[in-house]
# Entry
Amino acid sequence: MKTYGIIGKTCLFFGLTVLLSCQGDRDTLQMRYPGYFPEPEYTFGNNVLTSEGFDLGKKLFYDPILSKDSTVSCASCHAQEHAFADHGTALSVGVGGKMGSRNSPAIVNAAWQTSFMWDGGINHIEIMSFAPLTNEVEMAEDMNHIIQKLSRNDLYRSSFQAVFGKPKIESQQVFYALTQYMAMLISDDSKYDRVKQGKSAYNEEESAGYSLFIQKCATCHPEPLFTDYSFRNTGIGSKSNDTGRYKITLDDRDVYKFKVPSLRNVALTYPYMHDGSIRNLRSVLDYYSEGIRESDLLDPSLYKNGRPGIFLTEDEKDKLLSFLNTLTDFTFTTNPLFAE
Amino acid sequence: MKFNLLAIIALFISVLSFTSCTEDDEPKTLAAGEVSIEFDHVFGPNQLPFNLNTEYTHQRLGEKMTFSMFRYYVSNVRLKKTDGSWYTVPESYYIVDLGVNDGTHLHLENIPGGEYTDIEMMFGVDSLRNVSGAQTGALDPAKGMFWSWNSGYIMLKAEGTSPASSDGSFAFHLGGFKGEFAVPTVKAYSLGKLTVDGDREAEIHMVANTGRLWHEADGLAVRSTTHMPGAVAKQMTGTFYDGIVFDHIHN
# Structure
């Protein structure tokens, strides 16, 4: 119970809140995260976090009933063993074998995210799932039909009733439950974390890699969440007609910008970039070191001494990779609480 | 002493009667009731009665158009009392939908009894509710008036067919709540005197001209779809909202 970011049954621990939060026989849960994490962006608010709500959200996450022909679940493209990214596929496959146009992002520490999707088009975690549920090339279902299907199912009907205490299932409850599960997918037990907490130590190569990381990568991927949540043009996008952030803001300066992803569990989330166009981590480092070409809107932080690219020697790449591997959190990827 | 006592009794009686007089003169307390807002829809400068599945010719554009869907958000209704204070209707979000029975008729329930002189409403959905996660009621994303890929409410949807459009159809999904292209528009209307008193009818009639979406915008031959916030959404909703007027009340 100690490292998966949840303490159960807080009803037992709190005085007055116990009375309020235990209404309806629901056990409230609390988010737990290390002291060196910032305050999360999402703190549940009206969506009262309970173990029953979390369980219902998990059941929905793994259930293909949410897709049009009951073939695709959220977990189809967001697998726990890959830190809730897809199973090594560049572009995910939805209902009827339809192909998406971007790589499925990992779901890691989503409660800290300020926006969702590679272009940041979604502004709130509670309505994040609306897009994949209804997108033609993903789960291709209609919200009203999802609610009809869930309402016909005795188990779901009683679970929703128990969690939300309302006579009818509404979309808000589906979104709330999925959010309870996804916002609790907290990864904070990698080697990096254990070093941070004084429970472990880097070896020589990891330690050198960490120093290089701070020097060369941390502008966009700062600790402890390993992203600054900004949108940047790394030059990858300019090869395609996907204009990224521009589609949302319609600001010319945002053409080909995509969200900086967190690097937590990065070793497990291959292939890389918004289009899954780079197959392994070493190739990503090669790209940043030698592959970036001059272009108008390239992010300024990718220029060093007036030239595009962050040059790395092969030895530096080895060290960086060693450090990046310390961001893998097997406690997270094997936590039975998150599993189907 | 006796005189004094009598005087006190007399005074007491006169105070009592004065008090009861005042009660008689004051208007009796009015009971809370429903205010309904009926949106009547017309098309074009000739104010033709507007219905779905009926062909109209847009006078300025000279284009024929037949609508299969016309929906828009109205929100944040406030009513001004005769004393100048405002009553804000709680959770005040509605979809005017010409495609459903009674869909052009907003029912504002449990409005405090009294007399009202003005109404204020927002066309569109305020920015706060565009960024506040999963909502219910008229704001439920399952209503089909929310963009999944670019969070925010579709504040107006107009779809149909037209021989002027290159593919024979048109679809305008207009919205946006940020910056210069923010669509939501607050308008206030003077009502005269609307009395709310229990079951007594209190109905406000508004008139909206659907043709005004193209009051300034390019015709369907140039643009037959818009599915995003931006300049087009701002212009089309702007001229449409501008043309929504108060017509009369039933008391």
